[in-house]
Structures are given as C-alpha cells and as structure tokens.
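dumping this here before i forget
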Amino acid sequence: MQEDLKKFSTIQLLNFCLGFFGLQFAWQMRIILSGPVTESLGASPFLFGLIWLAGPVTGIVVQPIIGALSDHTQTPIGRRVPYLLGGAILAAIGLFVLPNSGNIAESFGTNAPVWLGLLIAAIMIWIIDACVNAAQGPYRALIPDNMPKEQHSVANSYLSFAIGLGSVIAAGTAPFLKWALGYQMSVNAQFYMAGLAFLLAMIWTCITIKERKIEKVETKEDVKTPTFMENVKEFFKISPEVPKICLMQFFAWIGLMSMMIFFTQYSIHTVFNVPDLAGADDTVKILYDAANMEGANFSSICFAIFNLICFIVALPIGKLAVKYGNKIVHIVSLISMAIAYLIMWKTTDKTLVAFAMGLAGIGWSSTLALPFAMLSKYIKQGTEGSIMGVFNIFIAAPQVLVCTVLAKVIDSAKITLEDGLFNNHWEYAFLVGAIMLILAALTTCFVKEKTN
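structure:
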C-alpha cells in the first residue's frame, strides 16, 4: 500500500537516478552524432528524418507493451529490472556497431550495394531507440512502485537532474578534450563511451535498487493480461484531466523534437555554412571536413549548455512545483523555451545560439518532470507501467510528424549555392517548434491539477 512506502533519502534518490544518467548519456550521444554519421553515408534531410522514426515508432509500440509486461512480471530479481538490464545490454551493442556501419558494409566487398552502410546504421539506430524505450517506461514506473505520492514530483525532478548531468557529460566530453588537451575524440570513441556508460550505470541500478515486492492475489481477472487497447481505454477513464495532459505533451514534444532532431544539422549547415554533403564527392567532403567537425563540436557545446541548465534547474523546479503547483511552473518553462526557439530562428550568431540553448534547457527540465508528476497523481497502484507506457504515445506520436512532415519541409526548402552545391533551411525547425511550445503552454492553462 502507498501508505506503507518510506520516503527516499537524498542519497537514495541520487543512487536511484544513476541508471537514468547512463540511459541519457547514451541517448544524447545518439542525438548529437547520428546525423553526421548517416549524412556521411548518403542520407538526405528527409531520409534522416525517416531514420529518426525509430524513436517514436518504437516508443509507441515498445513502451506500452514493455510497461504492461513489467506490471505482470514476477522474477527473483524484480518486475522492472529484467527490462532495464536487457535494454541496456542490447543498446550498448547497437552503440558499438553504429559508427562502424560503413566499415562493416565495405567488408562485404566492392560488389556490396552503396546503401548497405546506411541500412546497417539505420538498423542500429532502431535497435538503440527500441532498447532505450524498453528501459524508460519500467524505470519511471519504479517511482510510484517504491515511493510515496508526496515524493513523485521530487523523484521525477531527480530524473531530470540525472538526464541533465548525463547529457552535459556526454555532449561536453569531446569539446572539453579538444579545448583542454588539443585532442579530437573520434566519433567511434564517443559512441563506445556512451555504450559503456549506459551498460555500467544500469547494471549498478539493477544491483542496488531493491524493488518493493507486490503480492499478487490471483483471480480470474488477473489471469489474463490486459490488451493494449484495453489499457488505452482504461487510461482515458482515469480522469477528464488526463486528455488535457496528453494534448499538452503532444504539442510540447513536437516542439522539443524539432530541436532535438535537427539542431546538429542546423549547427553544421546553417551556423557554420557547410553545404549539404549527402551527395557530395570525396573531394568536396574533404574540403569542408574541418568546418563540419567544428559545427559538430559547436552542437555538442550547445547541447552541453542546454543540458547543464536542465541539470541546474531540475531540483529548484521540483521545489517550485511543490510550492506553486506543477501547472504554473510548467507554463513559464514552456514559454521560456519558445522564446529561445524564436531567437535561433532569427539569428546564426554563435553566442546568441548558445544563450538560446541554455534558455531552452529550462523548458526541457520541466517537461522531463512535471507532466509525469501531474499524471502520477491519477495512477492506480499496480498499473504504473501500463499507464506510463500509454502516456508515452503522446511523447512518441508527435515525433512521427517531426520526422516526416517537418523533415520533408526542410528537405524541400533548398538554398542554391555556388559550384552546384546547395543547403537547406534548417532554421524552419525552430519556427515550427516555437509555435508548438506556445500551444502546449496554452493547453496547460486548461488543466485542473489534482492537489492530493
């Protein structure tokens, strides 16, 4: 029973979020570097968007299934741990293989099709995303599983704290080594680092977190695991406020992923004026190699700033939410992120872009915690994994629109350059993202937050 759950101490909360630190470390590296890897193998902006469908599609399919399964799993090591550990192992394998996709394709000989390397990279991205999604739902379900309701907002804020810290270190390691030691860390080495971080951190969590045992009293209703559609129907019966929270998430994640998916390419091609290299020959690629790497490093620095702010404000946001309510704090955070996007839409000044990414980190920190805190107040004990899995649809589904419609818009909006080269209007991602974030803030205004 919820009343019997003991509060986690600060040390226990920090230990609890370590696995999420590793998960986000790996995810951040995949966000930053998958664009340069796939573009080097011939992916256009639209094809890159289609490859990015891995995240939302596996989120829609994998998270609800894994969430529901974890609710009904009984093993000696717990309900959630098998999914956390399995996801980490397979994701680490994908992270090790992804940067070597081109080399693996070349090992098939000169008769291998030119698209084989890109296909291998796409498969690895889908494996990574599926495994990350398999781990996320059960991980968040550990909060209502093991902590009293009054700690849910704070616990989710600790996960935001871990996400921010993991992302900062992942994004900042290569630029820091370049600045401090003059050593440029290879793309391969960065992916290996991410795979190890995810695997080792999740193993630590699985070893140290003791799941609360939930005694299962079997009845006829318990014998049959609810179907996906049954879970969806029950989800929307929880409260009239749940659809509003879902719509809020839908708009917010269109806005978030407009930046997440396209920021590295925006940095390389818009801020650093590198033309599209997907169809360029090796001579042109070598000509722009330095600028391409500089743009990727700048993207890493900006993501580090973005996640550093997320990291810094995560715990204060949780405390402010306790004092003023999740709703008010989330509205302010979303608006701050929309302003940041409008700055990036209108400028390519590196200092302003870096500042805007820092400002956007406030909205990111809030989105990682407060919507889940709002929803968790309505969750019935024993359905935590199922509820989080269905809720993830409203995080994953909007990403499909970004990966297809917005990617196609950017792909079609070409800028003709000299010598037959061209570029794309990557900044359009931020205009669309700002509009969506404003709609998310407006939707939040209509949510009547449950106070207990």
